[in-house]
Specification:
By secondary structure, the chain is an alpha+beta fold. The protein has nine helices and 15 strands.
Length: about 300
Amino acid sequence: MLVTLSERDLTSPSEHHLDNGHEVASDYERMKPLTLLETQAALIVDRLSSGICTRLDPGGGSTPRPDFEILDDRRKRVGVLEVTSTVDPDIAAFARAASDSAEADSRLRLRWFISPINSQVSVKTLRKKIPPILEAAESTNAVMLVPTNNLNVFTIYDRAILEELAQYGAEMPLAIPTHPGEVGALHVKLPTTGGGIGPDMVNQVVSEVLADNGNLKKLQEAPEIARHELFLWLGEGTLPSMALCTPRHFPNEASSYPTTCPKLPSPITQVWVATGPNDLEYIARALWILEHDHWRVVAQADLLAETGSE
């Protein structure tokens, strides 16, 4: 179940907005449905800052507008918010194909997550061929515990089993225990890319997005207000998205945390960077906030508490 905004926030544009200094009425027919990423971004900003995100009418004119305006508790406009992402089209297509891939399987004792080697791998083939291999691995004690700071995570080190998985385009098998009374399951994750990761990867992609004149133009609306904020979703399976998660997985490692940050160009006052929701984290997997010339890494527990999740 995905957390959403209230019906007011999802469907109602602001009662009024400014167009070159003049109030104009909203036209509902011009409003396209919000995407999941836009909805989740507005939810996070709404709950983690002093403001209410309300959808903006795009206006239909030649001047691009941000996705949301930010209102205070008296419904006065105090900021604007633009939501963008670095989603790869091929990865997005694979995600749509795998969206219902979390299938319970009574043959399995653990909840398994596997990654395809690329976005051309058939999800249908993975669902058919991989469970028997994992079942055999569980029954032969080829599954080993990986110590982490958060969960009991299991993986497979046996070379022959890994090679068999690779024949069908699967790699990086990981598993977590099931809840009492549950059977095992197979989750098909998004394709990943290899290589070393670190906080500078996040800085690099944020710098590239900040250089996009399209985002800057949208956030130039109403220069007299205090907040001009950008929310960036990092594409799943990319190195920057994995780098964003390292403070969560390795909280005691200093190298997990950013020590430098990009310079915010005018008029942007704050940048939110997150990875998308998945089967385990339905708000966001990780969240960093660039404010006042430094990064703030939001702990997952704080994120869940602030958004009212159980």
